[in-house]
Amino acid sequence: MAADYQRVVVLAADLSEHSEKAFNWYVENFHKPDNKVVIVHTPEYSMGHSEMSPSKIEESIQEVLAKTEMIKSKYVEKMSEHEMNGEFVALDDRNPGQAICKFAERINATFIVTGTRGLGKFRRTVLGSVSDYILHHSHVPVLVCRMKYLDDK
To answer: Where is the UspA domain (predicted)?
Structure first.
């Protein structure tokens, strides 16, 4: 995959403004016309044990698929607006950070771009952080776009 392009960039995306600002920052500051951008999203299914009826499961799956399609449409359109070479990939894994790192390594990505909510150390420890996982486990360089920095722009 990397042979056709100078660089292959993996950009983690969801519907948050953090992802959108990270994408915009990448476009304005790092993007080169010969880069291939692969927008990756890991759909998150969250069902409690009390919600395990077949109809609730089907409803949840449909909601996740609709959300994934919204993300795909949004970022495919943004790439088209900027005349970027790229694609959208939905990764099927319960651990988004791990899935993104594995995917980037598998396609020989040059680097990963991700946004972050800027959680404090305590909240990041309790809640977990996809960007923190990627930063500490990736085999390729990682560009983390902090929301606080982006808000100052």
So the answer is: 8-146
Can you give the pTM of this predicted structure?
0.83
Query: CA 49 → CA 10, 23, 46, 89, distances in Å?
Result: 34, 36, 10, 29
Query: Whose CA is closest to 114, among 20, 30, 15, 6?
Result: 20
Distance CA 13, CA 30 (A): 17
What is the arithmetic mean of pLDDT over 83-87? 96
Output b/e per residue, 6-23; b: 16+ Cβ within 10 A: eebbbbbbbeeebbbbbb
Considering only residues 115 and 103, tell me which one the structure prediction assigns the higher pLDDT: 103
Sign of the Cα torsion 28, 30, 34, 37 reads: negative
